[in-house]
Amino acid sequence: xxxxxxxxxxxxxxxxxxxxxxxxxxxxxxxxxxxxxxxxxxxxxxxxxxxxxxxxxxxxxxxxxxxxxxxxxxxxxxxxxxxxxxxxxxxxxxxxxxxxxxxxxxxxxxxxxxxxxxxxxxxxxxxxxxxxxxxxxxxxxxxxxxxxxxxxxxxxxxxxxxxxxxxxxxxxxxxxxxxxxxxxxxxxxxxxxxxxxxxxxxxxxxxxxxxxxxxxxxxxxxxxxxxxxxxxxxxxxxxxxxxxxxxxxxxxxxxxxxxxxxxxxxxxxxxxxxxxxxxxxxxxxxxxxxxxxxxxxxxxxxxxxxxxxxxxxxxxxxxxxxxxxxxxxxxxxxxxxxxxxxxxxxxxxxxxxxxxxxxxxxxxxxxxxxxxxxxxxxxxxxxxxxxxxxxxxxxxxxxxxxxxxxxxxxxxxxxxxxx
Length: 419
Description:
Blueprint (H helix, E strand, L loop, with lengths): L1 E5 L4 E7 L5 E3 L9 E2 L1 E5 L5 E3 L1 H8 L4 E5 L13 E4 L2 E4 H20 L5 E6 L8 H17 L4 E6 H10 L6 E8 L4 E8 L13 E7 L3 H12 L19 H6 L11 H8 L8 H12 L3 H18 L3 E4 L8 E4 L1 H25 L7 E5 L6 H10 L4 E4 L5 H19 L1
């Protein structure tokens, strides 16, 4: 049996097709079928927390190191760099291994037996326009899975896995555009699905086209943070010399996997020297307060929560910025959410259109939305506007890809037995 693993930038999920042929979605954290892709290394007692527990420990003010969006580093030179965790130098590769090992352990505890094989999802592009780094990212993830204890590791594209999950519910032949919007990537496939085909191992003739772009939910968080919060620390502020305050510090503070770099001695010294670039020194004081108190993750978590609340409720959501200054808030409105992400949503829709053109189609029968960021209201509206009259189906945001990977893994295993 192969464990289907959707190792995501923001959240991860797992599923398995049992010996009886039934699909099992595996609860990884209590009753939750997804686990935030996060680790917290406590400086107080040396323990390691995973998932939501990691986020709670960090946001509670406990001393330690939070790691998020580790998937974003696959294919980069940073993966093999050593970082200081609780006084010990640890490579980011080792941290990926730790997370996958924890996911394997939790899955086995639920299933009641060991699992030695994994079918891992991968985006269409780990890295845009760089085949060498893209191949390196998959190789690195395979090595990490082996390091976590899996003896057999295989891969399937995440949007194709989502299509296999969607296929389980169709009653007639359907051409579907799968839109998989994750934390770090947006991936698309045009595929023909039909009843009774899920048992077939070779589906190459049904996969009409795939495209993808390295753009997802964490990029949305970054953009909204830069637009609504970082100006309160000086982004865009014009200094005495008539120039804007240098922006790299703000971009690092708005990027999940780069925040910790802002707290290095060198970065703190550079930020402290920026006071001469400010006309309003109170803004610089705020910036230094955030850096010295290491509040970057807390700010970005507030932005992420406001993004979700604003999208779900269709109303303004306030960001509590007391950690910067008591009583300080920023407001995210539905209009601000749409305007702030307009360029990125256009890029995502254009990539989906490219996928359809590659398949020789103008529109699909169905647009199937899945992935953690697919529930974003402006995104759904953008696709409805791009493909008017086309049925839109919303899948399980965190479970569709894992389910499709498990289905594909079971199908592949069966074909080997029958060969």
